[in-house]
Write a structure and sequence with these properties.
Layout (H helix, E strand, L loop, with lengths): L2 H9 L1 H4 L11 H8 L4 H18 L1 H14 L13 H9 L2 H39 L5 H24 L4 H11 L3 H7 L8 H21 L4 H22 L5 H11 L6 H7 L8 H26 L3 H23 L10
Helix pairs in contact: 1-12, 3-4, 4-15, 7-8, 9-12, 11-12, 13-14, 15-16
Length: 343
């Protein structure tokens, strides 16, 4: 792997890009899970579990199959080989007939679930956020249902065309990450800076998509350089748009501040609310961020050590992960704005 790829994956991609399921700054996927909980304590604990399960537990079946494939199918490690065939080959070669059928059925179910979700979601966006407010405001519900069905067909056709030109799964993920490059910053900073508004997010989404597709289709640059250019260009545009457009209504910001007590650059709003000492210091979030990252990584490698027989190292790593979890819990417990009880 070229050094620039490694640097972008390690130091840029995690904060700069939106991607489904675990977007930076917390988006619709995360919020949906949190809002489904009984109370704030439940949402906090479920988010803890999600991050550990998503990053520390779920990757290991994939990692193990990948390591087995390197040994059993050494020809797939040769440059130019179709390495993506390793997983289905392992399914065919090692699973008995019943489990093999269950695995294939699971793949098909997951595929249909994802496709139907994305098509319905896309149609909802097109109808509710574009067609209804800007094209035809006072039509009947029957008309909007018809437009949503046509939108599903339109999106399916477009998706099919794009998929036809994608040669690898890796290429698909790289395109998704590139299209969202630069949006991650605005999604994170909206929690720490009162000045971020809807136009900041809209401009970031539009510019990142245009830049990513233009670089993909019009240049021969590799993915890492395309990411860096898209992140830089998108950041410049959304910051400029933020300063050129009006901020969110102060009344709304004050209500938001009273509920959330966000840290960071919210001093003008906290003054408006009348608070001077109860603002949440940003170092609390930074401490929890560092401990949370360490918690996930030590859990990931601790489980790996146990799997590969290095029991002592695995136990030590998991103890460190537990200690980091305790620090996070202690920090939240001592903050009166963090609701970790049922009261």
């Amino acid at each position: 792997m070229p050094a620039i790829f490694f640097v972008v994956y390690l130091a840029v991609q995690w904060w700069a890009s939106w991607y489904p399921g675990a977007e930076p700054g917390g988006g619709g996927y995360i919020a949906q899970r949190m809002l489904a909980c009984k109370n704030e304590k439940g949402s906090l604990l479920s988010t803890f579990f999600f991050n550990i399960a998503h990053y520390a537990l779920r990757p290991w079946p994939w990692i193990l199959v990948g390591l087995v494939a390197l040994v059993v199918y050494p020809e797939l490690a040769i440059k130019g080989a179709d390495a993506e065939i390793a997983y289905p080959r392992a399914v065919v070669d090692f699973l008995p007939i019943g489990l093999r059928g269950m695995m294939i059925a699971s793949f098909l179910a997951a595929y249909m679930s994802t496709i139907s979700t994305q098509l319905n979601l896309g149609a909802a966006y097109l109808v509710n956020d574009v067609y209804k407010p800007f094209i035809k405001k006072d039509a009947s519900q029957k008309h909007y249902v018809l437009i949503s069905r046509l939108s599903v067909i339109f999106l399916a056709v477009i998706g099919g065309i794009i998929t036809y030109y994608m040669r690898t799964i890796v290429g698909g993920w790289e395109l998704i990450l590139a299209i969202g490059a630069g949006t991650g910053t605005v999604y994170i900073l909206r929690w720490y800076w009162w000045r971020v508004n809807a136009w900041s997010e809209i401009s970031a989404m539009v510019v990142s998509a245009v830049l990513a597709l233009s670089l993909q289709l019009g240049t021969q640059l590799n993915w890492a350089y395309r990411m860096l250019i898209t992140v830089g260009g998108t950041t410049v545009v959304w910051l400029t748009v933020t300063f050129l457009t009006a901020p969110v209504d102060k009344g709304f910001l004050c209500e938001f501040y009273k509920k959330v007590h966000p840290g960071g650059l919210w001093r003008p709003i906290s003054k408006e609310v009348g608070e001077s000492k109860d603002r949440k210091p940003i170092w609390h979030n930074f401490l929890d961020f560092l401990c949370g990252s360490g918690l996930v990584l030590f859990s990931l490698f601790g489980i790996g050590k146990l799997i590969f027989g290095e029991v002592l190292k695995g136990i030590v790593f998991l103890i460190i992960a537990g200690a980091l979890f305790f620090i996070i819990w202690w920090d939240l417990s001592r903050q009166k704005w963090a609701v970790i009880s049922d009261k």
